[in-house]
Amino acid sequence: MNGAGRPRPQGGIELYAWIFMRVSGVVLLIMVLVHLAIMHIINNIEVINYHFVAQRYATPFWRTYDLVMLWLAFIHGVNGVRVMIDDYVGSRGWRLLSLASLYVLGFIFLALGSLVILTFNPARPF
Amino acid sequence: MQVTLKIRRFNPEKDQEPWWGEYKFDAEPTDRLLDALNHVKWHVDGTLTFRRSCAHGVCGSDAMLINGKNGLACKLLLKNLGSKITIEPMRGFRVIKDLLVDMEAFFDKYRSIKPYFITRSPEPEKERLQSSEQRQKYDDTTKCILCGACTTSCPSFWANPDYVGPAAIVNAHRFIFDSRDEGEEERLSVLNLNEGVWRCRTIFNCVEACPRGINVTRAIGEIKKALLLRKI
């Protein structure tokens, strides 16, 4: 294998990424279906308002649920794009640029999402 | 029957771009595609270049892209290919001339998985015995003839030429699951790299392309499982 311009990370990162994709995929399938059922089948957009969210977020259960779903979905998606970049972006410069933007954007959005979920104050009047 | 061979020709010393050569002639329906290629080379255009050796589907020299699907020219009969047959070199390899491709990198990858017996335990007095159940575990992957049909049908390989590729993985499987071999750690660590088995997206093109009917994707899956559980 002559790696022209492609640094090869050693070790089993790919193994863990591979198993993570499978496990998170299965977990997400269940979590997202439950989420969809609650938000679009059991309730609908007429019912869902600030009060509805505040009520849900008054208990730690739904906060944890949403946080886990956000993290799993985000890392699953970012890893999927990383693998595509690995496959299809051959030149070193473009790879570096695209991977760096992916990680920076991923981090910002994940941090923003987590911030909202964790710091939301249901007691505050709207 | 009358056949037309449409062959992708390229001579880097003369041609700027590859071009299509069309050759129309009479042939027996029971002729193999290799016979038709030989007809062109011997009677129409002697500059047509391709590999072939045993001509009986064993040596793996004449793999090429036939009507959009990888196969061995010596194993396909004209009557099963239609009257107009499109022939191209295998995809993803550098074309040296016409259907002749550079397979050096392919064999480098084959060598990287150490395709030979590795043993550390003391030599037994007689041969190393193996039960038929133990033999069965890697029976499928012993059939590989290293023609390159699987690797050059793999989109992961087209996108990333550093990917070790299905053919090398099949040959690693042949030794990893052999009860007499003791080199699985070395082979598994090569396949656990970024360019190893994790590049496989289970597209199954390799299974469709293999002229020996090896279930390549299954072998790759078994190696992924072995890496995960570190259990052979």
Q: Notable features of this structure?
A:
heterodimer; A: 126 residues; mainly alpha; 3 helical TM bundles of succinate and fumarate reductases; 75% helix; B: 232 residues; alpha+beta; 5-stranded mixed beta sheet; two-stranded antiparallel ribbon; 8 helices; 15% strand; elongated
Give a summary of the structure in a few sentences:
The complex is a heterodimer of chains A (126) and B (232). Chain A has a single domain (12-119), classed as Fumarate reductase/succinate dehydrogenase, transmembrane subunit (3 helical TM bundles of succinate and fumarate reductases, Up-down Bundle).
How are helices and strands ordered from N to C of chain A? Answer: HHHH
Number of strands of chain A: 0
> What pattern of helices and strands is seen along the backbone of chain B?
EEHEEEEEHHHHHHH
Q: Give me the number of helical elements of chain B.
A: 8
In terms of per-residue confidence, which ranges of chain B show pLDDT below 50 for 5 or more consecutive residues?
none
Please state the CA-atom Rg of chain A, rounded to the nearest Å.
19 Å
Structural write-up:
The complex is a heterodimer of chains A (126) and B (232). Chain A has 126 residues and is mostly helical. Chain A contains four helices and no strands. Chain A has helices at 13-42, 50-56, 60-88, 92-119. The radius of gyration of chain A is 19 Å and the shape is elongated. Chain B contains eight helices and seven strands. Chain B has helices at 33-44, 104-112, 132-136, 155-159, 165-176, 184-191, 205-209, 216-229; strands spanning 2-9, 19-26, 63-66, 69-72, 84-88, 95-97, 100-101. Chain B has a five-stranded mixed β-sheet, covered by helices on one side. In chain B, α2 runs parallel beside α5 (165-176), α5 (165-176) packs antiparallel against α6 (184-191) and α5 packs across α8 (216-229). Chain B is elongated.
Topology:
The complex is a heterodimer of chains A (126) and B (232).
Chain A: H1 13-42, H2 50-56, H3 60-88, H4 92-119
Helix pairs in contact in A: 1-3, 3-4
Chain B: E1 2-9, E2 19-26, H1 33-44, E3 63-66, E4 69-72, E5 84-88, E6 95-97, E7 100-101, H2 104-112, H3 132-136, H4 155-159, H5 165-176, H6 184-191, H7 205-209, H8 216-229
Helix pairs in contact in B: 2-5, 5-6, 5-8
